[in-house]
Amino acid sequence: MRTPIPGRVTPRVAASTEHQATVAAHLTKRDRWIARLCAEHRTLTSTQIARIAFPSRRAANHRLQRLHQWRILDRFQPYIGRGRAPMFYVLDTTGAHLLAHEDGIDPRELHFRAERSIGIAYSLRLAHLHGLNSLFTGLIADALAHDDRNVTAWWSEARCARHFGDLVRPDGYGRWREADRQIEFFLEWDTGSYHLSRFVAKIPGYLELATTTRIVTPLLAVFATAQRESHARPLLAEHLRAQPRPQDLPIATTTVDDLNRAATGSAEIWLPLAHRDAGRARLIDLHTAWPHLGEPIASAQTTTNTSEASPVPRLSPPAPMPPFAQHDLTWKPSR
């Protein structure tokens, strides 16, 4: 007979120091990284977590089940009408308290509420978040399979808003390295649920940011369908031409289908706005379309692990790549 699966601890137990001390002794670097990813990026699916942190889906599901029992993470499975959606994981009470202690924060000052964390299950932004996080987890999985590739920055929408929100609010910011080349980018993810003019209206903000910082950062746009992409490109080009310094905002586009087929955003899926005849390019090769684009400059502003000064206590962001060695645990990415 199979051993019954232990039940979850109650919310009251999850907030107790006794439970947290017991669980803390059993958490690995991988567990803590996953919890911090869920805190920063709000939710990740079992599929996304398995790609970037486990050797197999079975291993991932086994460990995620344990983290769920301990209330490090909570989970939900949205209804999709046909087939079965993967489990979506969010930070839970014990996880929030343990991460707070790691950062030297009184958990009470975080004002963490488990019901607010799981509330993303009912949000219209769930599909948007899932798409954004799929692109970045795909890049991480790609980097894990190649020694010369690396994700050196992955910023959430909330973190972008804290840094750039007075001018523009990107959906995300990232930096990708292959061999000795790097490219940084802002990301906009289109779900097809709003008018394209809303996206186009963000262009002046991006240009003002480039003028203020004197840093030209490309904008990558992922559209819900090929039809949306074909409609958006002339609108973006027309609006960009009307700006005083259009060269300060290089733009490349792709579609969700192209991204899903490639399984990684580093593939030959990006179509530069001003160089359509050259065809689609790999992410790292976009420099060819934009010769004026310089190499990213490492700074405190773009280092992911840099603590952010804030009057409100906030958890430190996670490292963009797994902070544990390949020989640790059961970590054996395919090569």
The biggest sheet, with number of strands, parallel, antiparallel or mixed sense and barrel status, is:
6 strands, mixed
End-to-end distance, in Å?
38 Å
Shape: globular
Radius of gyration: 21 Å
- What fraction of the residues are assigned to beta strands by DSSP? 5-15%
CATH architecture of the largest domain: 3-Layer(aba) Sandwich
Mean pLDDT: 91
Top CATH class of the largest domain? Alpha Beta
CATH topology of the largest domain: Restriction Endonuclease
Give the quaternary arrangement of the chains: single chain
Organism: Haloechinothrix aidingensis
Biased composition (Pro residues): 314-323
Biased composition (Polar residues): 299-309
Pfam families: Replic_Relax
Describe this entry's structure for a reader.
With 335 residues, the chain is of the alpha+beta class. It has two domains: 112 residues, Orthogonal Bundle (Arc Repressor Mutant, subunit A); 164 residues, Restriction Endonuclease (3-Layer(aba) Sandwich). The protein is built from 15 helices and nine strands. The strands form two sheets. The protein has a six-stranded mixed beta sheet. Helix 4 crosses helix 5. The longest helix has 19 residues. It starts with 10 loop residues before the first helix and ends in a 46-residue tail after the last helix. The C terminus is likely disordered. It holds the Pfam family Replic_Relax. This is Replication-relaxation family protein.
